Amino acid sequence: MLPEPQSQSDSPAHGDLEVLKRLMGFRLVMVTTLLLVAASIEAVSDDLAPVNPMYFVIVATYAFTVLHALALGVLPYRVQVYLQTLSDLSIITALVWITGGVRAGFMLLYPLSVLTGTVLLERGRGLDLAAFATAAYAAVVWGVRVGALPPEGLSDVLFLPETRLAYSVFVTGVACTTVALIGSYLTESLRAAGQQLERTAGEVEGLKELNEVIVASIHSGLLTADAGGRISYANRFAETVLGLPYAALRGRALAEVLGDPRFDDAGLRMRAATAELVPMAVAYRRPDGEARELGVSVSVLGEGWGYLLAVQDLTEVKRLEREVRIKERLAAVGEMAAALAHEIRNPLGSISGSAQVLMAEPGISEEQQHLLDIIRRESRRLSEALTQFLRQARPTPARLEPLDLVPTIEEAVKLLRNAPEVLPVHEIGFEAGAGPLVCRADRDQILQVFWNLTRNGLEAMPAGGRLRVSLRREGGEVVLSVRDDGHGLAGGPERRIFEPFQTGREMGTGLGLAIVYRIVREHGGDIQVESRPGEGTDVRVRLPLLPLVAVA
User: Fold this and answer.
1) If you average pLDDT over residues 346-368, what whole number do you get?
2) At 300, is the secondary structure helix, strand, or coil?
3) Cα(299)–Cα(273) distance, integer angstroms
4) Which of 62-76, 255-269, 353-367, 456-470 is predicted least confidently?
5) Phi and psi of 185, rounded to 5°?
6) CA distance 403 to 478
7) C-alpha closest to that of 24 among 74, 77, 63
């Protein structure tokens, strides 16, 4: 009676089922070979029995194989192993009975069949198969000996001593038991090694997945390149920074992707030779046209492995650095302006007062009075210019209140069209999106921003051109755009034009755009510049919109 199948053996691995299928295939090959041999012998022999018993064994084997195939998806795995192995041992016993086998022949199949079953079952179950094989062989031998079975191929059993027959059964039992024990030990060892290998493979796979997650999630771009400088890997953040998917980066040269010849083959080798890890500053333009400032560090992966590049997006850091630098310079300008006011404005007041006194003196000729009047007026003009300079360098705090930019900028554009700076060769265009576009702002300071930007645009077009002013909504921001058709900014200085004293005009102070930048930042906004040499400049001021409350 078969033992009840246990749960751990009822769910075989796919490989175990494949072994059972191969076992059935081997059985079919062996039986078919026996069929051919029996048919060949019968064809050339005249003294065979009317019905060869070998055919019964062959038919039984085919029948068992068909039943085993049908049971693959129905019966528990361990039951299938027992059934196939026991049927094999029964067939082997029948072959031994038909062909003889006390000394040789099919006797050798007993240990092989026991070994096969032992490998497929858990530890200790091979002894059951060894006992069954020994019992089956002993039953057929003693059945022939006592006359319960016809002799067939075991006719010599009738004449051998009983001790000899017992010895044959004993040797068969020892052989099957030994094979079962050794097979069981080796099977358990192999299974333990396989389980350990699976655990190790699982740990390696887990570490690999963890490594991939870490590399993909790290807030730093990682690129690997082969010895020739071609990209072989890019993590998720590198794709985001560069604006290109991994499929578009793989296989491309670093120098081509970054647009910097320092990353060609020779440059990478030189960088690797110096073992310098200080990031290189790279001005990078994404495929969508957005300019980014990157810091790229290069290190060697290993001998022949290539290079590892760490890419940092420093755009925001550089912007903050420029903002701090602008504030520091504006502070210096304020201190200088205060000193100038103290040293110049008081003497100007004395000069103006003295000229006023002299003009009141009797006997002053008309020409002298005219000269004194010039001194008085020029002193006053210089004092007013100095006051205006102080007002720009050290402005009063902004008075922020809700302001609709559409009528404000529209009115300023009308005044601009009649300003002396606008020549007949200039064209002023204005376009506003659906309003209202309300933000918290100081009206005077917003107009100061407008006049600074438009005057710079007009000065960039001395030979004429079109100045386009527009207002539009983008998400939660209003964008004031001032675009000219002038000479543009050569060499990419748009990053520094907001720093004090950065000017391209001969008589300019370089303070106008610095003040514009400060005003925009104080209003919680941002300012962007896009310029191409010979094509013009587009300055975009972004200010946060106020949410409008609907009136019921």
Assistant:
1) 75
2) strand
3) 9
4) 62-76
5) -65, -45
6) 12
7) 63
How far, in Å, CA of 340 to CA of 7, rounded? 95
Backbone angles phi, psi at 148, to 5 degrees: -75, -25
Contact 296, 311 (CB under 8 A): yes
User: Which phi and psi angles does 195 have, rounded to 5°?
Assistant: -65, -40
- Torsion angle of the four alpha carbons 364, 365, 367, 373, in this order, in degrees rounded to the nearest 10: 30
> Left, alpha or beta for 302 (phi > 0: left; psi -120 to 50: alpha)?
left
Residue range 41-67: mean pLDDT, rounded:
62
Helix, strand, coil percentages for the chain (3-state, nearest 5): 60, 15, 25
Name the pTM for this structure.
0.41
Q: What is the pLDDT of residue 30?
A: 65
Question: In sequence order, what are the residues at sequence separation of 6 or more whose Cβ sits closer than 8 angstroms to the Cβ of residue 261?
Answer: 255, 267
Asked whether 525 and 544 are in contact (CB, 8 A), the reply is yes
Q: Three-state secondary structure along 483-548?
A: ECCCCCCCCCHHHCCCCCCCCCCCCCCCCHHHHHHHHHHHCCCEEEEEEECCCEEEEEEEEECCCC
Encoded amino acid at 469, one letter: V
Interaxial angle between packed helices 126-145 and 162-217, expressed in degrees from 0 to 180 and rounded to the nearest 10: 160
Each residue's pLDDT tens digit, 289-338: 788 888 888 888 766 678 888 888 888 877 777 777 777 776 666 666 66
Name the DSSP class of 419: S
Cβ-contact 543, 441 below 8 angstroms: yes
* Contact criterion met (CB below 8 Å) for 446 and 403: yes
pLDDT tens digits, 12-29: 544 566 666 676 666 666
Q: Is the pLDDT of residue 371 over 70?
A: yes
What stretch of H or E contains 421?
Answer: none
Cis before 436? omega within 30: yes
According to DSSP, the β-strands at 291-302 and 280-285 are: antiparallel
Instruction: Please check whether residue 386 is in contact with residue 340, taking contact to mean a CB–CB distance below 8 angstroms.
Output: yes
Closest C-alpha to 127, from 135, 119, 118: 118
pLDDT band at 155 (very low <50, low <70, confident <90, very high): confident
511: nearest Cα among 524, 523, 493, 498: 498
Task: Please give the structure tokens belonging to residue 145.
Answer: 């000996």
Structure tokens at 171: 């040797």
Residue 91 DSSP SS3: helix
Q: Give Cβ neighbours of residue 153 (< 8 Å, ≥ 6 apart).
A: 96, 97, 98, 99, 100, 101
